[in-house]
Every structure is written in C-alpha cells, then in structure tokens.
Fold this sequence. Notes:
Elements: H1 15-22, H2 45-58, H3 62-76, E1 82-86, H4 92-100, E2 109-113, H5 116-125, E3 133-137, E4 149-155, H6 163-176, E5 177-188, H7 194-210, H8 215-224, H9 234-243, E6 248-255, E7 258-264
Parallel strand pairs: 1-2, 1-4, 2-3, 4-5
Antiparallel strand pairs: 5-7, 6-7
Helix pairs in contact: 2-5, 3-4
Amino acid sequence: MPTSPRLPSIRPTTRRERIKRNETTIHKDDIFLNKNSPTKFEFNSGVAEVFDDMLERSVPLYRECQDLTVNWCKRLATPDRCVYDLGCSTGSLLLLLGESIPTISRVPLIGVDNSAAMLSKAREKLKNSPNSVDFIKANLDASFPFNDSCAIVMNYTLQFIPIENRASLLKKIYESLIPGGGFILNEKVLSENELLGETFVEMHHDFKKGHGYSKMEISKKREALENVLVPLKLSKTITLVREAGFTAVDIFFKWNNFAGLIALK
C-alpha cells in the first residue's frame, strides 16, 4: 500500500526561537490597553513596533500558515522569476523565505508595503538574511508594476484593500505570474452562515483572551478595525480569484473565520 508523502514539520516555534531567528526583539502589543488608544487602526510606527507580537497573539496558527506558505513558495520557485510578498509588513515571511530558498536558486525576493514604518522594521530584520531582499514602498492596486513572478503572496492583506479594487488587483496578479506560477492568499473571512459566524467570532475572541488580551483590548481593536479590515465570505473571495483567471483554486488551510487559498496559473 503506497504511503503518503511526508510533510515538512510545522512545529510552532517558541518565543525565544523566534527572537533568535529574527535577530530582533519582539515587543509586546499593548496599544489598546491605554486610555489614549487609537480610534482608527493604522500601520504607523507604534503598530510596527509591536506587529510581530500582535500577529502571533491575534491570528490563529499564524506560524503554521507561514510555514505552509514558505513550502508553497519553495515548490513554485523558478530561477530569475520573482517571489512577491504583498503587504510584507515587518518582513517575517521574507526572512523565512530567505532562509529556505538558496541564493544560488536566483529567485528574487521582493517585499511591498505602503507603510514606511513597517518597511523600516523589515529592513532591520533582514539585514543579515542569507538572501538579498528588495523592498518597495507602494500602494497595492492594478497599476503596480510587477516583474515576471513565480509566486505572489498576500498574507492578511487583501482584507485591507478597498473591495472595489480587489478584482482588478487580482487580475494584475494573475497576469504577472508565469504559467505554472502560484498565488497564495491567507485571509480573515466571513462565515457563509450567520449563526456559525457569530460563534467563530466568539472563538476568535477566546483565542485572543488565551494569549493575554483583555476584553477591553479586544473590543477597542475591533472598533478601530471597523471599515478598515473588511473581510468577505470565503466563497466570494474564491469567486474573485477565479474571475481573475485562475482555474486551479483550493483551500489549503481553514480555522473557523481564517482561511488559506492556493491558486495556480
């Protein structure tokens, strides 16, 4: 009887391992613990300083999704064709990609973000990376000048793009990929069922509480993200990806109201 291929280990790393791996100190997120916390969420210097901790404590199985994304990028890597991380924030995924894709492979790594504060943290984090990474400060829309790409990643980024701009951006991503290239999307999503959706939100809040966030912090952040982070139903997102031109589309990760998609050209 044939055996299934052995998957790469996705053991969660400890805080100490992450600090050593990133060679930067991870500051605790306490932004919404203060009385003067922001009323609207912005990717400013204050958020950039604590963003790594915020993601680890706010996004279920964040590290595992990163490892799965890296594995997809390694499979898709093609010499002289780019791997883009759109909305790269502090560069954590690019650091892992730099460690996983040898320089000899000649696969350019490019991080794109519209936050100068995030890019500053990313450059600092990757200053000793074994693989050089280019960073571009730009807004993500259909006018962005992609180079020929073998893989394009959006980790929790599409949800911040205005809904009316998502279809054209996805079309541009499809056109920028070489045949056989792939688009990896990790995203917060809405449930197809209202009752289940409410339960998913409650379970997500429980996850945050279990990682040290107070009820007040959770409530304040949710209010600050209103009309800033706008998720769609997973079925709608899949439809947008298919309408962009992708025919091979599937879900590679799902945790209640979080999902990961792989789409091949």
